[in-house]
Fold this protein.
Amino acid sequence: MPVQESRWKRFGRLFLRALPLMGLAGAALWLWLSGRDLSVGTVLSYTPKLPLLAALFLLLLYGLKSISLMLPVLLLDTACGVLFPLPAAILVATLGTAITLTIPYFIGRGAGPDMTKKLQQKHERLRELREMRSRNELFLAFLIRIIGILPCDVVSLYLGNTRMPFGKYLLGGVLGFLPDIVTAAVVGMKADDRSSPWFWGAIAVNLLVAGGSTLFYAWYRKRHASGKAPGAESAIPREE
């Protein structure tokens, strides 16, 4: 009897852990079956009028984005700019980005060690992260997000599976996405006035940041290029 009770307790814990993902998956399925084209207008049409409920709804959508490719994160950032004053829009979008980064990280962290190998086979650029990570994990988490050379969720799964410390991962990731967050919020705020210098200035600054980050990454790789053969790097240890 105690053994059976223990099994039920384990099942209950697993069910409670999976419940948020099940809810998000259900919402993704509903959104897909509804057949509506995804746009800022679509998001706004579902968003509650009360600011607090609107913020909670958008945070739910950020969580949904983390397990679905259907919702571009910049679309949600722009919706924040339409709905809220700029400081509040940046705050909501930053919290949403943190949620988007957190869910796949812990999915990867809970997966088996084979995930790293499979991800590296599918995305060869992940191999470049090995040597960079050994120098500065916070800087790596920031750089890989700001240059955007790999899909967001792939990086999150990989860094979670290889046990990057969550604090460094989250802080670096949020800071790396901050230029996009601010730009999208400003664009959303000035969507009805595209002649505004704020609108085009935000886009120009974002393009400069993106271009500068890409050039810096190329310089960084060249400066720290290793003479080792591709198979010579040691694997990232997994913390148990």
Confidence is low (pLDDT under 50) at residues 227-240. Residues 36-223 form one domain.
